[in-house]
Amino acid sequence: MKFETLIQSGDWKGEKHVPVIEAPEEVASGEAFTVTVSVGKEIPHPNTTEHHIRWIKLFFKGEDEKFPFEVGTYEFNAHGEHVNGPNTGPAYSEPYAVAKIKLNKSGTLLAMSYCNIHGLWENSKEIKVK
Questions:
Q1: Domain boundaries in the chain?
Q2: 47 and 53 in contact (C-beta within 8 Å)?
Q3: b/e for 80-110, b at 16 or more Cβ within 10 A?
Q4: Domain Desulfoferrodoxin ferrous iron-binding spans what residues (predicted)?
């Protein structure tokens, strides 16, 4: 079995599990810019003890590069767990992360998310460096 058979994708406007990458279409070489990655932007994803997004990973693959570079891993560990029972805890983390990065070549931002019920999901966004 290969990972490619396990990773799902879709339009984030109609599928709540797809990671959404928000970043400029074009950036200046070597200048920092902000990227946000989230799950559930258009259709909220449940954030319960039983059903939640565990993590999001963000990568960048430069044009003509063989491998991607990991930008960041964002874990979401509070889902209402408590000794009094599921969904009674005082804290819930939302699947939303912000990264500030610099690029010196054009390429693709790639994000992967993990839902504890529905598995792995992916999305990508091209970014041009001028």
A1: 3-125
A2: yes
A3: bbeeeeeeeeeeebebbbebebebeebbbbb
A4: 10-123
Q: Residue 2 catalytic?
A: no
Report the distance separating Cα 113 and Cα 7, nearest Å: 9
Which of 15, 81, 94, 122 is flagged as catalytic? 15
The reply to whether CATH 2.60.40.730 applies to domain 3-125 is yes
The yes-or-no answer on residue 45 being catalytic is yes
pLDDT tens by residue, the chain, 130 residues: 888 888 878 877 878 899 999 999 999 999 999 999 999 998 899 999 999 999 999 999 999 999 999 999 999 999 999 999 999 999 999 999 999 999 999 999 999 999 999 999 999 999 999 9
* pTM to 2 decimal places: 0.92
